């Protein structure tokens, strides 16, 4: 027994040392893609310049370079209906960022442009519109957003639209079962996206909408920022049958890094954290609003906040689960940075992407498979949709 334990210890030490020495080489030669980041909404709200290093938030161009990030899909989003003008405002903001830093970032919309940007040492910026409410029930708005560079449309956010039901509202019962899924207009949306070579994104959608859309789509779908239901049963995560359907469709599931989607114990730990500082949270909420208050509270009490966060190993568990179920070709990364308050320990910003590569190496993934997860799988699906 002692001999077996010693051998196991040596294997662990070897794997760690190998990962530490090999990570830089693999990460630097890989094309690293993040399929979902809520950066534009925060840039407009706070007026920050994400071309420069920021003390807050999870993304800026400086940390993107540090983390070896090659491609960022910028989420275009707002949390209420009537989002089309706001979508254009956020796209304008991205265009402005690119015009201010043309040597660091460029807009791309297909695989050929992506490859050129990477070769030129620039961050390839792509546009994903999050939520069907952003098109205001108008098919012509899909055309207009596509012309501005939209590479995917997430059919719903947490809110349902008149033509598609969300995961949040299907599971809460707000949308009745007989009314769930895509209606006739929703089916036209999927057909229009296919025609325009815009990827159909199935994060956030309800199960009925999911299966209606994946059955209709003539091209591989994207699930831009979701995790595994079997490991953490929340409505936003994918059940096994959904994961298998993506594999059969040839699509891609990009893992969300949010602690609440990875760790089934996170909500309980978070509630205890909030309870401990309840008076402070109430005061901060009255001054800054609930969301900003939570971020501030976390900044004030980092040790207690860190105690609620899962390890990076749990993120790798979600990747493992999908790989074992449908294969290595259908997994990517969609961190949801700047869209959530908590991520695994050590994953604080886009600069920490090399830690993902290291963790995959330690788990036993080889270089070819790691490069698929980091970006090649996304490029394959992008080519299948857009060329």
Looking at this protein, list some descriptive labels:
387 residues; TIM Barrel; six-stranded parallel sheet; globular
Total separate domains: 1
- In CATH's first tier, which class applies? Alpha Beta
CATH superfamily placement: Metal-dependent hydrolases
* Average pLDDT: 94
- How widely separated are the two ends? 56 Å
Work out the helicity level.
40-55%
- Amount of beta strand: 5-15%
The main pleated sheet reads as: 6 strands, parallel
**β-strand number:** 9
Q: Segments where pLDDT lies below 50 for 5+ residues?
A: 4-10
Number of helices: 18
CATH architecture call: Alpha-Beta Barrel
Topology:
Blueprint: H1 2-29, E1 33-37, H2 39-46, H3 61-66, E2 71-76, H4 84-100, E3 105-107, H5 111-119, E4 123-130, H6 139-147, E5 150-154, H7 167-172, H8 184-195, E6 199-201, H9 207-216, E7 222-226, H10 240-249, E8 252-255, H11 259-262, H12 266-276, H13 278-288, H14 290-300, H15 302-306, H16 312-326, E9 331-333, H17 353-363, H18 367-386
Parallel strand pairs: 1-2, 2-4, 3-4, 4-5, 5-6, 7-8, 8-9
Helix pairs in contact: 1-17, 2-4, 9-10, 13-14
Give an overview in words.
By secondary structure, the protein is an alpha/beta fold. It has a single domain, classed as Metal-dependent hydrolases (TIM Barrel, Alpha-Beta Barrel), CATH 3.20.20.140. It is 52% helix and 11% strand. It has 18 helices and nine strands. The strands form two sheets. Strands 1, 2, 3, 4, 5 and 6 form a six-stranded parallel sheet that branches. It has a three-stranded parallel sheet with strand order 7-8-9. The termini are far apart.
């Amino acid at each position: 027994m002692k001999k077996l334990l010693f051998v196991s210890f040596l294997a662990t030490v070897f794997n760690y040392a190998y990962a530490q020495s090999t990570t830089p080489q693999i990460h630097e030669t890989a094309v690293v893609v993040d399929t979902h980041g809520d950066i534009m909404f925060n840039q407009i709200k706070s007026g920050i310049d994400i071309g420069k290093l920021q003390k807050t938030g999870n993304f800026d161009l400086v940390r993107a370079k540090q983390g070896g990030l090659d491609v960022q899909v910028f989420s275009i989003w707002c949390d209420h209906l009537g989002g089309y003008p706001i979508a254009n405002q956020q796209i304008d903001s991205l265009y402005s960022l690119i015009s201010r830093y043309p040597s660091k970032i460029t807009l791309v919309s297909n695989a050929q442009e992506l490859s050129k940007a990477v070769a030129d040492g620039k961050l390839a910026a792509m546009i994903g519109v999050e939520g069907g409410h952003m098109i205001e029930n108008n098919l012509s708005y899909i055309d207009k957003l596509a012309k501005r560079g939209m590479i995917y449309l997430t059919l719903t956010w947490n809110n349902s639209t008149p033509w598609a039901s969300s995961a949040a509202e299907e599971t809460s019962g707000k949308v009745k079962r007989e009314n769930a899924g895509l209606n006739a207009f929703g089916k036209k949306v999927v057909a229009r996206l296919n025609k325009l070579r815009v990827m159909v994104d199935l994060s956030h959608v309800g199960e009925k909408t999911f299966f209606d859309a994946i059955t209709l789509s003539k091209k591989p779908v994207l699930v831009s920022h979701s995790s595994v239901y079997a490991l953490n049963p929340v409505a936003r995560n994918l059940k096994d049958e959904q994961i298998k359907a993506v594999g059969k469709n040839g699509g891609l599931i990009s893992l969300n890094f949010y602690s609440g989607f990875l760790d089934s114990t996170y909500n309980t730990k978070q509630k205890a954290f909030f309870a401990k500082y309840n008076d402070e949270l109430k005061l901060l909420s009255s001054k800054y609003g609930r969301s900003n208050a939570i971020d501030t509270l976390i900044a004030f009490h980092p040790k207690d906040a860190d105690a609620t966060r899962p390890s990076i190993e749990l993120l790798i568990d979600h990747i493992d689960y999908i790989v074992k179920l449908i294969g290595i070709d259908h997994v990517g990364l969609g961190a949801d940075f700047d869209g959530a308050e908590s991520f695994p320990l050590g994953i604080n910003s886009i600069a920490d992407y090399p830690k993902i590569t290291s963790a995959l190496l330690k788990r036993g993934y080889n270089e070819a498979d790691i490069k698929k997860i980091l970006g090649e799988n996304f490029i394959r699906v992008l080519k299948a949709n857009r060329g």
